[in-house]
Amino acid sequence: MTSDDVTVAGQRALVMGASGNVGACVTRHLAAGGADVRVLLRPTSSTRGIDGADIDRRLGDPFDPATAAKAMADRDVVYYCIVDTRAELKDPAPLFATNVEGLRKVLDVAADANLDKFVFLSTIGTIAVGADGEQVDEDTPFNWAERAGSYIESRRAAEQLVLSYAAERGVPAVVVNVSNPYGPPDWQPRQGMFVQMAALGKMPFYVRGVGSEVVGIDDAADAMLRASVRGRVGERYIASERFMTHRELVTTAADAVGARRPRIGIPMAVVYGFAYLADAIGSVLPVQVPMSRQSAFLLAHTSPASHAKATRELGWTPKPTEGFIARAAEHYVQRQQAGV
């Protein structure tokens, strides 16, 4: 699955977070590329994304230093893909417990592990936002901290922690800032929620005037693998193919499976209204609604980003994301028809 100019054959890899969509895809790419792959999963973690792959599975708490050290022993590269993405949480404590404090425990182990690389899965959300659609890159100063909310705050803190361990503790860390990834199998869709709804004919509307950076799931994994071989320690690399409007996203998904196109364009104000209602419900009832003012804000607050650095230094050339969205839509429909 890797390109001809980069190989992971023989690489002794540990994937932490292989139950997630990106982590599972990284695992599959490594196994297909001839790497010696080990994954560390909690006993309760889903393995559907890696079932059938020729890998060494270890079970345990990744934030337990002894467990992490044992899993990391004799490994060349760690791919760290553990992340809590629940921007809608009323209480942000779990975000920081996983995204920052759990990571800190793993980095302490990595500092003594004699690794070649520690490839950290970060997010496009830690990149700046350009004014009036201006394109940004890894070096554009972050400019929306006061509006970012707890999820982005936790991801920025995580990224800064990784870079500090690279500078001060000798961890050979490389950061990959992945945008919204699309593609099968995506067993637990979050970014893929709108694609899934459109494919299943449950998305009559699109949101006007907004969009996001997108990337195919296989290209996201390829960027991670390339970072393990060519990435410079202490550097960040944007892994995103292009900016896509919300209308393009859901229309591509619907067209792929012959579903009715979402035809009603609603303003972002309506989404914010629903988000305020969701927050109100969550404040009085013991439920967690998968929408909030903060997650709505993240939907609207984005801009085009350049992947030129990843192309120049990693040799990363992503394919059009439309094809990955179409494949994801087909899989969602197939799974519904199979009752899976």
UniProtKB/TrEMBL annotation:
<feature type="domain" description="NAD-dependent epimerase/dehydratase">
    <location>
        <begin position="13"/>
        <end position="236"/>
    </location>
</feature>
<dbReference type="GO" id="GO:0008460">
    <property type="term" value="F:dTDP-glucose 4,6-dehydratase activity"/>
</dbReference>
<dbReference type="GO" id="GO:0004029">
    <property type="term" value="F:aldehyde dehydrogenase (NAD+) activity"/>
</dbReference>
<keyword id="KW-0456">Lyase</keyword>
<dbReference type="InterPro" id="IPR036291">
    <property type="entry name" value="NAD(P)-bd_dom_sf"/>
</dbReference>
<dbReference type="Pfam" id="PF01370">
    <property type="entry name" value="Epimerase"/>
</dbReference>
<dbReference type="InterPro" id="IPR051783">
    <property type="entry name" value="NAD(P)-dependent_oxidoreduct"/>
</dbReference>
<dbReference type="GO" id="GO:0005737">
    <property type="term" value="C:cytoplasm"/>
</dbReference>
<protein>
    <submittedName>
        <fullName>Nucleoside-diphosphate-sugar epimerase</fullName>
        <ecNumber>4.2.1.46</ecNumber>
    </submittedName>
</protein>
<dbReference type="InterPro" id="IPR001509">
    <property type="entry name" value="Epimerase_deHydtase"/>
</dbReference>
